[in-house]
Amino acid sequence: MRKRTLGFVALGAAASIFLSACGGDSGSGDSASGAAFDQGSTEIVNASETTGGTLRYAISSDFDSTDPGDTYYAFSWNFSRYYARTLLAFAPAPGQESTELVTDLAAGMPEPNDDFTEWTVKIQEGLKYEDGSAITAQDIKYAIARSNYNGGELPNGPRYFESHLDQEPFNVYETDDPLAAFTAVETPDDHTLVFHLKESFSEFPYVLTQPQTAPVPVDADRGALYKENVLSSGPYKFDGSYEPGVKLDLVRNENWDGATDPIRTALPDEITVEIGVDQDEIDQRLVNGEIDVDLSGNGVGPTMKSQLITDEAAQANLDNPYSGALRYVNIHTPVIEDVACRQAIMYAADRDSLHRAWGGDSGGDIATNLLPPTLDGSDPESDLYPSEDNKGDLEAAQAKLEECGEDDGFSTNIAVRDGRPNDIATAEALQEALKRVNIEAEIQTFPAEDFFAQYAGSQDYVRENDIGLSVSGWGPDWATGYGFAYKITAGDAIQETGNYNTAELDDPEVNELWEEALRTEAPDERANLYEQIDTLVMEQAAILPVVFDRSMFYRSDELTNVYYSAAYMMYDFMALGVDRG
Amino acid sequence: MPPPLTEMLNYILRRLGAGLLLLAVVTAVTFWIFFVLPKWAGVTPRGMAALYVGKAPTPEALDATVERLGLDQPVVVQFFNFVKDLIFGTEYVFGRETVECAAPCLGYSFTTNSPVLEQLLSRLPVTVSLALGAAVIWLIGGVAVGVLSAVRKGSLFDRLAMGTALVGVSLPIYFTGLLALAFVVHSWKLLPVPRYVPLAEDPGAWFTAMILPWITLAFLHAAQYARQTRAGMLEVLGEDYIRTARAKGLSERKVIFKHALRPALTPILTIFGLDVGLVLGGAVLTEKVFSLKGIGAYAIDAIIGKDLPVVLGVTLLGAVFIVICNLVVDLLYPLVDPRVRIAA
């Protein structure tokens, strides 16, 4: 009996190894929806009005917060719309159309004054929370106040309101009457908000799409604990409490009125999120139909990607859109001070090998400018540092080295995040390319979690440790030149630590163009200014563009209404449904 | 003859006292690693605060976080506050709400703002389910295989069993676990995707969710136990008293199980106590591979996120388990091997 058991074990082990060696089957046949490769990037795939069922998400990490006022992750902004309606929203449409603004809670688009320093928005009447109480303009005003003026209680979200509103610093949690103290936003009645800004900000409506404009009544606010159970204004509400690192379940909110909501289909009956699942396991479950969506919105991991791109049967289930992000190398201006030396690096870089380091064509397109091709003002054809076959122009690089008095080259360090194979491969490719002109760059790896807080984004650390280069990536807060590039190129955005203008570019001409853009009404004129900024940043050689990143999404056959939203750089979660039939 | 009750109590109290001292040392060392090492590397309080304030924080947000988390206070003060809160409890203010954290208060997570003790307790059933289920399998399986191998030394079974044991010891969980998931769950669909269900809620679902993690974790440990048991048994079987027992005409079963196995089990019991304590403190890899939300998964997330209160909570809980398991094992020695007596 025992011998037989052992025999089975041996047989099982042998079979495992054999099957393992042969490689697994992705389990997907032809796409049941009849879709084609990358169709979801530009069209709605598997359109359906079928309601019901449970839409199952999984993610390897966790939300930064489920509190709409305290989150900055793209997937969290996308997902929070299930339970948090915002003043404005992005259009529920595939591809580039999704970057256009539409109303959500608002009754119409915001009206600016002549110089864009005052914006008035009216909200719809008859809107309700999950408990049946009315949503008012005061609740939205308070939500904005608590998200930006909270004394560090809610630290995760962006600070656009704090930066632009004409408001003295205060803390909602140390004020008896926070609504009265928050003078930068007026509420003349229950359905009107008037925003007073410090200076012109023509792109202010984009800020009103952020989850921080989701209403929160003063009495419902529990500070950092509010995320345990957010009071819903959307089609779903929390089923029990959010359990950090474990799960979040949503069920229908019976007090949501679909007639007031232009962006949510609310097809599934329930939504589940399993948190803390290993990425490879998520990918496997996705392909097997055991979950429906990877919540992170980053696409499949490298292991599954390498399987899928060679699996003919899986092609119809794949989408390969631009992620909206630029992968690049910062050239730290305080460390490599002479612009000619920085330009030498730009000329010497072998963009072809950098592209291959990032995974070749499926990983993205070679980038020679700053703004991703999906943004107005981008000119992907522009290339200030051209070379044959993108292999680098060594003669031009040497000439630049001589111009900055470093004829024999120089040495510096490249900072790179540990555990990020593409970043490390990028650093290695750059290191090899720079060697050709005697620029010795030593690669130093740092923990990814502390990279900006303590190393590449710390001014002191960079100077003391001669960090001349660092491998990085950036995606837009919203799909315009400002939403993408301000924080990585504007002098005002430089921080002592946690610095994302990591190159520390503080160029007066660039800064002036940013200010001008914020005063400019016409989008095409702003796009023109963004293009000029792009060119100036390239001339200053503060950022070495590597690739315009592409994601690889696996689209389940059971998922309905699937399309890529350029606004969130992933599938539009609000449109999704399931059809298990 | 069993030791007198007072003697036994005295022994237990002394061991618990030593355990408390160990917990204090573990806490102090964890504090030191968390705060002093980064300072040596030149990290400022603002640099530490930047870990907990999301993307592109303002200097004001950083300062507020430094103050809120007490990162600018001397390590000694922070350590004292932690111990004080642990013993006496404290209050936390969130927004306009004051929340009581009763003793033993392990504080709130820096990253999720959830109470550490509550999180640990909610995850404990997962880890206990994993640890105890796997421990039963590895103990019974490992000892049984070890005994049979010793009795049938040199046989085909012995060679196969020891060969498999060598493989088991050599293969890490993240290999065997992923292999098991890939084939048993995803390819052959013999078991559903492991999703923990409380035992009281649905025993069947609990069992089917845990069986694969149990076997995977047990495979690693059972191999070690089989080899250890075999070695111990072979040593004991060569003793004079075994020969005497056989000469007296005792059945082979009695010789093996009553006279040979019991003394061979003493070292097994020692490592069993340590192993169970360690696994209860968090089977990090097993929980991560099978996406089980237990103490181990909580620990690894906290370490990556530099979440000191959680790291301290998990470390303390792990140390408590080690202390308790070792104490239980020590108390069990006399039952397993009558030659062992507890010394007062």
From TrEMBL, chain A:
Domain Solute-binding protein family as annotated: residue spans: 100-491
The family database entries (PROSITE patterns) matched by this protein are listed as: PROKAR_LIPOPROTEIN
Q: Which Gene3D superfamilies match?
A: Dipeptide-binding Protein, Domain 3, Periplasmic binding protein-like II
Task: Cite a GO CC annotation.
Answer: ATP-binding cassette (ABC) transporter complex
GO terms for molecular function, please?
Answer: peptide transmembrane transporter activity
Keywords, alphabetical? Signal
- Which Pfam families does the record match to this protein? SBP_bac_5
Q: What's an example GO BP annotation here?
A: peptide transport
Q: Where is the signal peptide?
A: 1-21
Q: Which domain of life is it from?
A: Bacteria
Renumbered residue ranges of the record's region Disordered: 368-390
Q: What is this protein called?
A: Peptide/nickel transport system substrate-binding protein
